[in-house]
Amino acid sequence: MAEVVTENPELVAGDAAAAAGVVVRELAGVPELTAVCALFQSIWGGTLVTVELLKAMAAAGNYVAGAFDGDRLLGGCLGFFGNPAKAGLHSHIAGVARAGAGRGVGFALKLHQRAWALRAGATHVSWTFDPLVRRNAHFNLAKLAARPVRYLPDFYGPMGDAINGSGATDRLMTTWDLTSPAVEAAAHGQLSIVDGTGGVPALSVGADGGPVPGPADGPVVLVAVPPDIEAVRASDPGLGRAWRIALREVLHGLMTGGARVTGFDRAGRYVVSKERP
């Protein structure tokens, strides 16, 4: 049984949308779905979904939503139910246009998705993200209080888009427990920052910007990622690949061995506990 949610998720989501200056709503019409496809293409530089797929997803009762500033679409999100039916929602794509950056549009989309999923009877939402992208790790783990559950090497295979390029697409599968106290607090704007003080650096950023592995011999270890991996990939693809390999060896190795990512600290490091819960 899920815990009783003591706040009103619909009102909380509405407050987040108002703070971002947008209206978030479900989409079903072909013109709006066409706009979502165009938005995703402008962000990733490739065709991630088609209008026909979005139309079918929406008609089947899945989550397709957009964030609008007036008539201008600033963000879109697609999610679908997993197995067993409606126990959990998988959020496949969420993107915000450059014009909406820094306004809290992504946060408003996720809180709308949370309210929608709870109304549909779901207790959790899952999604994947590139563990090398520091801002996404901060958003997912600190801003939303989601928690990684599995490291997935080269999950999608080569994607060849403007963001992922032709490199390996390692991902962290992340679960958002919609009724947990931490997520409820996050929905009200309370950051879920984990203190990494005392943790052993298992991976650090070197003076040259490269990965520096260390001994993961403490009960709590810290796994750093570079401040801007996308800039690194653009300027030095070899260094970007080195970071992918290093993070996979360290973080994947820890999680495969039973360690848990408990959060993300202010210094841009995953805080990983090797102690059994």
Automatic annotation (TrEMBL):
<dbReference type="InterPro" id="IPR016181">
    <property type="entry name" value="Acyl_CoA_acyltransferase"/>
</dbReference>
<dbReference type="InterPro" id="IPR038764">
    <property type="entry name" value="GNAT_N_AcTrfase_prd"/>
</dbReference>
<protein>
    <submittedName>
        <fullName>GNAT family N-acetyltransferase</fullName>
    </submittedName>
</protein>
<keyword id="KW-0808">Transferase</keyword>
<dbReference type="GO" id="GO:0016740">
    <property type="term" value="F:transferase activity"/>
</dbReference>
